[in-house]
Amino acid sequence: MRCIALLTNAAVLVIFLGHLSTALGQGRGALSPEVAADGRVTFRLQAPNAKTVQVLGDFTAQTHDMTKDEQGVWSYTSVPLKPCSYQYWYILDGLTM
C-alpha cells in the first residue's frame, strides 16, 4: 500500500508542477508518471526538439524507446507492474537524466 501512495504522491506533484509551469507561461507540461487501473504506467516527457528519448528504470532490465506526438511529448506505456516504488530515468539524445 505504501508503494501505491508513493507513486500517487509523485503523480500529484507532477500534476501540480505542470499546472504551475502553465500558469507561469512556461509550457503546458506532461502528466508523468500516469498509473492506469490495470497497473500499466505511462511515462511522458515534453521535449519537442529531441531526436530520441528512452526510459529506463528498476522495473525493467532494458531501455524502452519512447514515441513523440504532434505536441512534442514523448511517451512509453509499460506492461502491468505490481504496486511499488520504482526509480526511472530518461535518456534524451544520449544524456541520462
Radius of gyration: 13 Å
Strand content: 25-35%
Low-confidence stretches: 10-26
* Secondary-structure element pattern, one letter each: HEEEEEEEE
Please give a quick description of this structure.
The protein is α+β, with helices and mostly antiparallel strands.
Molecular structure report:
This protein starts with a helix and ends with a strand. The strands form two sheets. Strands 1-2-6-5 form a four-stranded antiparallel sheet, with helices on one face. The chain is built from one helix and eight strands; from the N terminus they run αββββββββ. Strand 7 and strand 8 form a beta hairpin. About 18% of the residues have low confidence. Helices cover 23% and strands 30% of the residues. It is α+β, with helices and mostly antiparallel strands.
How are the SSEs placed, and which strands pair?
Blueprint (H helix, E strand, L loop, with lengths): L1 H22 L10 E2 L5 E6 L6 E5 L6 E2 L1 E2 L4 E5 L10 E5 L2 E2 L1
Antiparallel strand pairs: 1-2, 2-6, 3-4, 3-7, 5-6, 7-8
Descriptive key words:
97 residues; alpha+beta; four-stranded antiparallel β-sheet; 1 helix; 8 strands; 23% helix; globular
